[in-house]
Structure formats: structure tokens, C-alpha cells
Amino acid sequence: MAERLSGGCICGAVRFTASPASDEMGVCHCSLCRRWSGGAGFLGVDCGTAVEVENADMLGVYKSSDYGERVFCKTCGSTLFWRMQDGSDIVVSAQAFDTPGVFRFTSEIFVDEKPDNYAFANDTKKMTSAEFFAAYAAQQDPSA
Question: Which segments constitute the CENP-V/GFA domain (predicted)?
Fold first, then answer.
């Protein structure tokens, strides 16, 4: 999906454009994403590094691990991005896009951390935390 899409926070203080890597979205069920999103996990769209932000001074950043950080609007608190601290990858909240309905729900990660009190009806690829980290490591090491 080479198309640039726009989006923003609830109050409008932050606007962005992004080029999603594909028309797919996934959900992360880890405890941090569930707490951060206030729901059944973080519904995200991989945008690589193709995200441009207006009013970047309105972004709040929380370093949530040794490698990742969560980005939100300082004014209204809207969940916007999960990104690598080195800037090598940005996952945009699917619901922060102006047209979230363009994305197909295809994957779920950290399913071993998902509580039993909800389940999605979509037929998705499901990965445990160990499977996700193994797949990510393999992507980083082309000799693997």
C-alpha cells in the first residue's frame, strides 16, 4: 500500500500522514498494549519509517521497554504510535487514521498474554510472544 493516509488525535493537536506497508492491521495482546489502549489490545498498522507528524512538539513519549516507546498526544492523551526507540519502525494506531476501515484485520501477537474474557471472530494468524520474538529476530538476521 503505497498510498499516504492521514490521521490524528481526538483534539486535533496532532495530525500525521503515513504510508502503511500494506493494508493489514494486527493486534498486540501484551499487557502493556492492553493497558495503553484501554481495550482489547493495540490495533496497529506497520508504517516502517514513513510517518510525518505536524506539531511534533505536542507528542508525549513513554519509553515502555529497552527498545520500544509509546507515543500519544500531550493534550488529549490519544494513543498514536508504537515505535522502536532507534526510529527504525513505527506502528500507527489503526483507529488514529481518518479511514481505519481500509485495513484488513489479519494478525494477533502475544496471544499467550491475552485474557480469556474476549476473543476476535476474525480468522487471523496468531503468535505467542516467543514466536513473535523469534520471527522478529529472523527478520533482523538475513543469514538465519
Answer: 5-119
For 19-101, where are the alpha helices, taking DSSP H only?
Answer: 31-37
Exposed, middle or buried by CB within 10 Å (0-12, 13-18, 19+), for 122? exposed
CA distances from 11 to 15, 48, 53, 67, 127 (A): 10, 25, 15, 29, 34
Distance CA 134, CA 106 (A): 19
DSSP 86: T
5-139: which CATH topology?
2.170.150
Residue 101's Cβ-side half-sphere holds a number of Cα atoms within 13 Å equal to 0
State pLDDT tens for residues 9-57: 999 999 999 999 999 999 999 999 999 999 999 999 999 999 999 999 9
For residue 46 the three cell numbers come to 506497520
**CB distance 49 to 90 below 8 Å:** yes
Let me know: does 125 contact 108? Beta carbons within 8 Å: yes
List the chain domain ranges.
5-139
